[in-house]
Amino acid sequence: MTSAAVTVVVAEDSMLIRDGVLRVLATDDSIEVVGTATDFDATAELVHRHEPDVLITDIRMPPTGTDEGIRLARQLRAAKRRTGVIALSHYAEPAYATGLLDGGSAGRGYLLKEHIAHVDQLLNAVHVVAGGGSVLDPVIVETLLSRRREDELVGRLTARERQVLAEIAGGSSNRVVAQRLSLSQRAVEKHINSIFAKFGLTSDPTLDQRVTAVLLYLAAHSG
Fold it and tell me: Can you spell out the DSSP letters for 179-215?
């Protein structure tokens, strides 16, 4: 391991899921797992001890099996800790997403466990979140889009624009979006600019427009 390695703590009470995550992380020499845990208290202690770059955590863990992962993320943000958080869940649940991103999207990710086998998706998420970025599983975004279609905000986007938004929420670059949707990069740029315009986002260079677009969806569907 080099001194530039991304350090990670993995918190998951399911042995099968935990082993799957560890196997994926082991394929990237730039990632170092510094600890594993299976419950809330042990995870909090490991994060305090190691201050990892990223915590990959199940949302539901002992002792209550409800929202331990979300509470850990909130505690880290309240304490102004630098550790990023990737929450894992079996469910594309908007309430979990809004809870995770409460207070800001920087250094936060939400992935579905069924996609852990997609090696590139998990590894990309680790590096993006470690760098202060945000990653949402495209399925989660699609779930948000499928609810309350009559909502004015949702109604502003075309079906293709919703697909593009789902891809950029997953951390994909314009080039990758173009490949996955069989579009030219220029077409992708036009769709993204249209999304920003429909959402009323400005050209302020200090504004992360991609993340803001996703957060607008989350806010529109949190109720």
Answer: HHHT--HHHHHHHHHHHHHHTT----TTS-HHHHHHH
Q: What contacts 68, CB < 8 A, 6 or more positions away?
A: 39, 40, 43, 57, 58, 59, 60, 61, 62
Tokens read off for 149: 């279609």
Please give the structure tokens belonging to residue 93: 């649940």
DSSP 3-state of 4:
coil
pTM beyond 0.90: the answer is no
In sequence order, the 6+-apart residues with CB closer than 8 A to the CB of 223 are: none
Distance CA 47, CA 56 (A): 11
Q: Which two tokens stand for residue 99?
A: 């809870």
CA–CA distance, 31 with 6 (Å, rounded to integer): 5
Digit-coded pLDDT (tens) for 157-186? 898 998 888 787 777 788 989 999 999 999
Report DSSP letters for 57-111, one per residue: EESS-TTTSSSHHHHHHHHHHHTT---EEEEEESS--HHHHHHHTTT--TTEEEE
pLDDT digits 0-9 by tens, 50-73:
999 999 999 999 999 999 999 999
Tokens 């250094």, located at residue? 107
b/e burial code for range 165-185 (CB count within 10 A of at least 16 → b): bbbbbbbbebebbbebbebee
